[in-house]
Amino acid sequence: MPQTLATWFDWLQQHAELFALAATALLLIAAWLGNWLVKRILVRALCRLIDATALGRNAQELDNALIRRLANIVPALILAAGVGLVPHLPDALVTVTRNVCSAFIVLTGALALSTLLDIANTLYQLRRDAHLRPVKGYLQVLKIAVFAVAAILMVATLLDRSPLILLSGLGAMAAVLMLIFQDTLLSLVASVQITSSDIVRVGDWIEMPQLNADGDVIDIALHTVTVQNWDKTITSIPTKRFITDPFKNWRGMQECGGRRIKRCLYLDQTSIGFLDAAHIAHLQRFTLLGQYLTHKHSELNSWNTALAEASQLPANTRRLTNLGTFRAYVEHYLRQHPQIHQEMTQLVRQLEPSADGLPLELYCFTNTTAWGSYESVQADIFDHLLAILPEFGLRVFQHPSGADMREWRSASPANA
Question: What average pLDDT does the chain have?
């Protein structure tokens, strides 16, 4: 058997082209076997090691991306080391092969490092406070730096020149690079400001009407902040716009546990007047007004008694009005309401009258921030107030409708 191999070897040496082809085939087979062994043996061993650690949940990503790319370095190393042993190959071909293999190793290393940064971000997202300090933007900057360095090394390797020569030439291209990467640099600065100032987090409800964004932040990256609107559409906002444009963040409302109600009842000003004794007696039966009317009656009696003879003229006296009594009723109603936050501001105030009536504004906070519950509480409050207004002799102002005009026309003397 050894003699047979020696005979074949002597015969191949006499045929240089076949000898080179056979040696090349053996080298390629060796490279394939090296790749196979790494993927089948070392990868399995490493995956078992990973499964035994806290990274076990991400073993699939490591096996499918990082380790596979690292395993591709092995055949490139075998080819780069073994191409010089193949006989009868031109020196230029050997040099080119080694350079290409070296460039491939650099590229594979950069891709593996990029995958490792993705895995690092995935692991970081498992933290409970990850949404408070997202790192995706910083990792994207590192990826850009990695690929920039890899590109320089690959070009230098393919040209068989020192990377320092290429780096020295980049100084003259600094202005061009600044122009090319202008958006990236601005986005990087914006990402740093957003993170350091904590103005936007994943999960925040934000409003930016000029960009049709109104919903929850679902991702913060280097160049864009992704918002899922309430209609389930997706809006991508350039990160730098959060520094240059105004926007509203509802996080404060969600964290404080109360959501504001700020709405007006528009009252017909012609329905406002003084209360007579019968009307006061009628309102005295309201539980929410009993203590108020008693206190107010005592206060007004003391005031009017001090007027002596001047109290004979009603214009000189102080009297209860239906509007003031209704306002007191609303204040007591809010204080007794179980779904109104009692430790936050509560106001029932009159605003400036207009052609649409007298606005009576309710300013308070619910003790829930859930959208549906908030709307239900607000609707229940105004349902009740609108229904109880006639008890005070008040009317809601509204513009005449078609039905009002037909009723007026049918009641006019000309149509009688």
Answer: 80
Burial of 169 (0-12, 13-18, 19+ CB in 10 A): exposed
**Strand, coil or helix: what is 345?**
coil
SS3 content of the chain, % helix, strand, coil (to 5): 65, 15, 20
SS3 343: coil
**3-state SS class at 249:** strand
pTM above 0.90, yes or no: no
Which residues make beta-bridge pairs with 234? 228
- What pLDDT, in 10s, does the model give residues 193-217? 777 677 888 889 999 999 889 999 9
**Sign of the dihedral through C-alpha 217, 220, 225, 231:** negative
Instruction: Give residue 288's identity as a one-letter amino acid code.
Output: L
* Gap between the Cα atoms of 1 and 367, Å rounded: 92
Collect the ranges in the chain with pLDDT lower than 50.
1, 3, 5, 8-9, 11, 15, 58-59
- Reduced to 3 states (helix: H, G, I; strand: E, B; else coil), residue 257 is coil
User: Rounded CA gap, 83 and 78, in Å?
Assistant: 8
Beta bridge partners of 262: 363
Instruction: Say how far apart CA 149 and CA 156 lie, in whole Å.
Output: 11
CB 271 within 8 A of CB 394: yes
On whether the CB atoms of residues 383 and 371 are closer than 8 A, the answer is no
pLDDT value at position 259? 93
Distance CA 264, CA 398 (A): 13
Q: Decide: 56 and 50 in contact? Cβ < 8 Å.
A: yes
Q: What is the spatial distance between Cα 206 and Cα 359, in angstroms, rounded to a whole number? A: 30
Q: What is the pLDDT of residue 7?
A: 56
Say if residue 255 is exposed, middle or buried (CB neighbours under 10 Å; 0-12, 13-18, 19+).
Answer: exposed
First and final CA of the chain: distance in angstroms?
A: 131
Residues in the chain: 416
DSSP string covering 173-207, please? GHHHHHHHTHHHHHHHHHHHHHHHHT---TT-EEE
| 132 SS3 class | coil
Could you tell me which residues come within 8 angstroms of residue 94 by beta carbon, excluding any fewer than 6 positions away?
A: 83, 84, 86
The first and second tokens of residue 166, run together, are: 């290429």
Whole-angstrom Cα distance, residue 395 to residue 267? 6
Computed on alpha carbons and rounded to an integer, the radius of gyration of the chain in Å comes to 40
pLDDT for residue 46: 63
CB atoms inside a 10 Å sphere around CB 137: 21
Contacts of 13 (CB under 8 A, 6+ apart): 19
